[in-house]
Amino acid sequence: MGKKILLEHINVPGIETYDVYRKQGGYTAVEKALKTMTPDEVVEEVKKSGVRGRGGAGFPMGMKWSFLAKPEGVPRYLVCNADESEPGTFKDHYLMKNLPHVLIEGMIISSYALGANKSFIYVRGELMYVVRILEKAIAEAKAAGFLGKNILGTGYDLELVVQPGGGAYICGEETALLESLEGKRGNPRNKPPFPAVKGLYQSPTVVNNVESIATTSWIINNGGEAYAAIGIGRSAGTKLISASGHIKKPGVYEIELGVPVEEFIYSDEWCGGIRDGHHLKAVVAGGSSVPILPANLILKLANGDPRLMTYESLSDGGFQTGTMLGSGGFIVFDETSCIVRNTWNFARFYHHESCGQCSPCREGTGWMERVLHRIEYGHGNQHDIDLLVDVAKKIEGNTICPLGDAAAWPVASAIRHFRDEFEWHITNPSEATQPGAVFKGDMALV
């Protein structure tokens, strides 16, 4: 069994309550940080750990903290991004539902490190029952003296607020989240200025993912160097993976970064392999916004070495032969999957969720949805495939926020690796539109 940091006590009965969490060593990291460390020392331990943002971007968290502006007389804020609307990703939801105090403890430590006296947890609007779970955990922590005025007699004050989200995928983008938190429409902001300089209420703000913040208590208790020793290279520590699709054991798994992708898919410790009687066709490794890879490329690098569950290994080869770890939304497809239909489904989602602020995204996502619908339902022509590639190129890199890229990459990669399947839909429309019809050409199945 691999190292467990966040899910170590997941099976302890009553672990969602303060009393049980405390008995398992909970809040000792808060005591250590507030009583024996300065805020700068906490930041330094997080920097030593090498932990990278677990929301998708993978930017070093300690470095992000160090960018926070500290003007005199201006409040600073920490905002936890718990919006988690990426299709295929549900690990933050799982963590908050089952281990709310892991997040609350991490919020206290992180807020102290950043000099924030009021912090926010912005939760996906559809998860109101999770909001209630977190509010109960906050009340328990406050009753125990870990929140409020003069925490543990140290003179540090912290108020923690849970805010239901605006019910939109775009609110997962950090500046759109801040706009929504301020009560406005969740449109992304132009950058610069960045949130570290002008964020929530135009004050210096750090926005971090649930999983990122939750790691801080272990890092403070055990040291940044101990965390950095887990994993491999610049992919330090553990990572929560949301595994779904055509596997025997879907669920949330905590892995040490560096596990071979093949082992993660086929080991009984994790996914348990492809469902009986079927074979691996493709994988979306980091949530719907990352490039899809066929079976041979997700398991092996171009040089024949095994591909690993790390930021670097998954992206090896760039977008030609690689993908991204992203938020860890690991979606597995077997040979019964229609790549065209899957790509159209993703395109529908991104068209629907575009805020409409940027023309390339507003118009381009609509174009891609309509053209993919045309191909899927037997009305496409060969020029449509190149049209999709062209539209994707015109969207990528030309929008205020990454939603445009998130919409373009799945389409471009699906055509790059499964062009023959798109062509089959066009040349055999009567067959392709039959219920349950799937391309059975020369596929690299495993």
Describe the structure.
The protein is of the alpha/beta class and 446 residues long. The protein folds into 3 domains: 18-228, 3-Layer(aba) Sandwich (Rossmann fold), CATH 3.40.50.11540; 241-334, Ubiquitin-like (UB roll); 339-432, NADH-ubiquinone oxidoreductase 51kDa subunit, iron-sulphur binding domain (de novo design (two linked rop proteins)), CATH 1.20.1440.230. It has 20 helices and 11 strands. The strands form 3 sheets. It has a 5-stranded mixed beta sheet. The chain has a 4-stranded parallel beta sheet with strand order 3-2-1-4, sandwiched between helices. A two-stranded antiparallel sheet has the order 5-6. Helix 7 (128-143) links the parallel strand 2 (118-123) and strand 3 (159-164). Helix 2 runs parallel beside helix 6 (100-114) and helix 16 (339-353) runs antiparallel to helix 17. The chain is globular, with a radius of gyration of 22 Å.
Name some characteristics of this structure:
Rossmann fold; 446 residues; alpha/beta; Ubiquitin-like (UB roll); 12% strand; de novo design (two linked rop proteins); 3 domains
Q: Could you tell me how far the N terminus lies from the C terminus, measured between alpha carbons in angstroms? A: 25 Å
Helical fraction? 40-55%
Catalogue the unreliable spans: none
CATH-assigned fold name of the largest domain: Rossmann fold
Query: Which CATH class of the largest domain applies here?
Result: Alpha Beta
What's the domain count?
3
| Physical arrangement of strands within the biggest beta sheet | 8-7-11-9-10
Proportion in β-strands = 5-15%
Mean pLDDT: 95
What is the subunit arrangement here?
A: single chain
Enumerate how many helices there are, as a single number.
Answer: 20
Q: What is the number of beta strands? A: 11
- What do we call the CATH homologous superfamily of the largest domain? NADH-ubiquinone oxidoreductase 51kDa subunit
CATH architecture of the largest domain: 3-Layer(aba) Sandwich
- The helix/strand class is alpha/beta
